[in-house]
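Re: the 220-residue chain
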Amino acid sequence: MSKKQILIYFICLLLFVALIIAKQKQVRSLRNKPIISTFSEWQQNGKPVFVKKVLPEDIPLFEKLTLRSVDNRTFEGYVPKATQEKLAIGQDIYAESVSNNIIGSITEISNSISLDTGMFYVKAVFKKPTDVGNWLVVYVHIDTLPNVICVPNTIINKEDDKYILWVVADGYAHKRTVAIKRRDGYGAVIAEGLEAGDYVVMRGFTQLSDNDKVKEIRND
């Protein structure tokens, strides 16, 4: 074996030993690091929860209708008595209940029941021509609940015939009993139990116990 080969082997050996020493130092360093568990993290900083300040607002109410195309602006359909009683000529129509875009209005409502369908005839006219096919689902603005506190249905649980949700005050979680005025697809309107400015837990409440320390992630 030549001197050059011996030198190369020696350098490789030194590099190998250096890598082993570096790895050992890294392992010792990691062993000396304090192990932070989820529980100890929660004890120190609180359980993470997403909260939102609730404020009174006007909540629009909608009725869903399925209408058939007569032409590219005129649609018609039949509705049961319970729906017919909520409708009025001139009510705005939306493509989606969460949209602010008015696409048309109710122009005709029959007070006589159809013998063929057992329901009441309704006609709507859109602002602009549209090509949506033969059938279309629309939302009619039937009323507005003024100045109410409304929360998502998903954050309310029922315990022993009581409706409860979670609020946060001064860094701690508290279980709150609420009374619901009405509940629908838009959410739950709270009659009692919440005040304007309360911070309500939107996510993370499944891991909570009363008076738990929490780390708030706010969505005002």
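Helices lie at 3-32, 38-45, 81-84.
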